Amino acid sequence: MHLNSTSPPPDSALAPVQISENDGVRFLHLGGTAVQSAMRLSAPNQLELEYTRSMMGFLLFKLQPRDIALIGLGGGSLAKFIHRHLPASRLVAVEIHPQVIAAARNGFGLPADDERLHVVSGDGVDFVRDHPGSQDVLLVDGYDAEHVVAALVTPTFYQNCYAMLRPGGIGVFNLWGSDPDYPLYFSHLAQAFGGHAMQLPSETKGNIIVFAFRTPLPDTTFAYLSGRADRLQADLGLEFDDFLVRMGYCNQCNEEGFLV
Is 24 part of any domain? Predict the structure, then answer.
């Protein structure tokens, strides 16, 4: 395994960015061995990591968002996928680590900014707070070397996420289910969204994706979601049918659908 490292400026407390490759997959790391992003070199526009595919599950509930914000760029996998497959959507991606942005551009094929993609070098907490009512979908995927960034799991941050969304908007949060504080994080998140939250556990890892909804709520009947999952799976090649099965294990539902 070959590692390339670039160090942040001497006065920065940010972790060094490392890139490794193994078995045809390129990985992004931040100051440790934990994988922050991955790209299969033979399929650079696909979503290699399962949790990133699960985060795209928001399309089950909101098919054509006009504005999407992403907090935590990583290698840019989600940004690339959205830019490629959702031509009606505009995406702003906010990343606090400037060398992560450079790695995404130079090592992971993130395209240059255009009218549908804008990458901001800055603090995602501040960006969310300063842009209320601006987004239809908010994706939050912020980790340091080993853990979710503490500032991205506070009650105040979740309240600001709710405020950032337009009516009918969806927040999508990548959390770690084995974190002993996960129940607390989920409680704060659900409370900020009036209890309107659903969980999607990863099949092979400990990630749990939480979808949180600002009213009016989407259609969550099984008949509607099953039809949408079939169409999305055919169009995008992601396992949307499996997403619904896994959500059925950990969310309240009745014979007609999910209770949100």
Answer: no
